[in-house]
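Consider the following input, taken from an annotated entry for DNA topoisomerase 1 (Chitinophaga tropicalis).
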Amino acid sequence: MAKNLVIVESPAKAKTIEKILGKDFEVKSCFGHIRDLEKDDMGIDISNNFKPKYTIPDDKEKVVKELKKLAKDTDEVWLATDEDREGEAISWHLCEVLGLDPEVTKRIVFHEITKPAIEKAVQQPRLLNMNLVNAQQARRILDRIVGFELSPVLWRKMSMSNSLSAGRVQSVAVRLIVEREREINTFSAVSSFKVEAFFTAKDIQGKNITFKAEGPTRFKTAEDAEKFLEQCIGAAYTVRDIQVKPGKKSPAAPFTTSTLQQEASRKLGYSVSKTMLLAQKLYESGKITYMRTDSVNLSDTAIADIQKAIHTNYGERYHQHRKFKNKNESAQEAHEAIRPTYMENASVDDSDTKKLYELIWKRTIASQMSDAELEKTIAKITISTNKEDLTASGEVLKFDGFLKVYMEGRDDEDVNDEEEEDDGSLPPLQVKQQLDLKEMKATERFTRPAPRYTEASLVKKLEELGIGRPSTYAPTITTVQKRGYVEKRDKEGVKRDFRILSLKADKITKQTESENTGAEKSKLFPTDLGIIVTDFLNQYFSSVMDYGFTAKIEEEFDEVAHGKKIWNKMLNEFYTPFHKDVENTLENAERVKGERQLGIDAETGKPIVARMGRYGPMIQIGKAEDEEKPKFAKLKATQSIETITLAEAMELFRLPRNLGKFEGEDVVVNIGRFGPYAAHDKKFYSLKKEMDPYTVELDEIAPLIVEKRAAKDERTIKIFEKEKIQILKGPYGPYIKQGLRNYKIPKEKIDTAADITLEEAKAIIEDVKANPPKKKAPPRKKKAE
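Applying the prediction step yields:
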């Protein structure tokens, strides 16, 4: 038995640290949280100063038992959980469960898993910081209160389902997405005409090249644009003025949690949760510093290491010492930005984490590199016939500096029409030089609404508003999608005509062209359920949904962490008015129907409404109390209760569609609980993703039926038709299926699955029902609110 027991959160981290510390230390993992609030009665004694009631989950009993034994048999226990508030809370829970005295138990922290950092931490241990523990405890308790008290309100007042939930940060995040969607839905595009003139002039080699100059203004109407072009007929174009301005670009700060999530999304297409999973892997293997931080600071050692890497790889001219300051004054949890632990390693061998590591390396090294030096030329060109100026601009990179390594990406909302095309270089021009006009165009352009959020731009917005902290972004975005309030999907563009007026050889021509507009990829869309829940919470719990209030709560957690505020006093200030709102809403609020009246059915005179049903948004013709049952149709995935028109709603009642006969039996397509399907010969076949049940034809469905039937035959070992029991082949071996449920076949019968009798199959089913398999322990719990 080693003299020292070190407890960390992750088994991967444990292996790495044990190699560094040597034989006198045994490093074990507690696999994340070992205690959580009880489920019963919220797990909080509100009347007793919000005293939490903790329990050890079943899947952690074995881990705790082993740690207790090891702690009892060792000379000294060291707590080395992560250095943020949640890590501090886990260390406190370990003290409580293992019977360790927090007044003497050694607590060590480090933000990189390297030999110097670990050895330094062991030489300079500290004690548990109860302010950090209480800040985390306050967050956990407050979020439990909000979830446990708000969710039943939703169940009582909304008729959709009992799986509804609300959360302090998740509900505000959904509100942002809902408000953006409504901005887009109410947006009305306005057109204007942008004038661009194309000239020819000789470059330094004497070759004629074409360059562009922009008009003096945008014209509101085609008539105004045409009038301007008419004024330019027969004009001479002269360079009136040339200005050459030096400029520079500076690199971005090294990564914080949120900027890493944003940039990995823009450059690598990673979801926020994937980025954090890969970053965790890099940290635990000692490749990068701690990945949950809102600090842009770099240590002096790191800066010296980066300087050496720049001198070696690019030369002394490319180095520029920089100190970045945090915008967020509370940024203190990890004390340093995310960076590689050793800058000489420009890459890693692991294929999963390679791209993310290289992104971190480039961002880090670029942050200490020289500015890029530019030269911007702006030429003013006079039109002789109306004395207006055209403006041509070009940019030349004189010294690449940090751009040699890295350029920060941008989100859709940060790019405007003027910046869509990069400035090219201009040919050498001189004042009073006459220019030859090749063509002048006035092109119709349309204003655009604010783009929908991506996961990354939502993180950016939450951070700007002060909502949440580094550990909360990924689980918040995952939760709102799992709850069915938000979905990430693509949107196809629509064709739109635009007009072009052209002046060429003193003649004006007009033409109409079309463009694809509004296409979006991997954007966050609110579902109808998300919209209805948001509206309800906005109406009755305005403070919880208020951005400023939510940010203020985060600041109060920070005050608790700094010892400036007592945690249960802070909770009481929140709970008293909140609980009154809950009681008032339960007593006085009307049930939410989530309905929108669309009109009256011309055939029956019955009302047509779009509403939420048990299985999602739908259209209903008629009322439940009518003698004749109402008709129902499910909305398409791209349709919404808020925006569907009466015509679009009636189109949905074209289903079911009979496509004709195949092998002597009718083929009928429809949409069911699990999506679009084709029914044939009393069997059902799910349609492929690209198949639209409203337009698909028999010649497309017939091969699908044959293909799926063959695949099913290959999987089928045996069928007991009357009892609807099947023995099937699966990817992990044979299994029994009855209805929608699957049952594992005992090991001793796997090789003879084809010989299983009906009685044996029934016995296996009953045995599994009576002794359900124990759920596997979930993977280490990620940082959450």
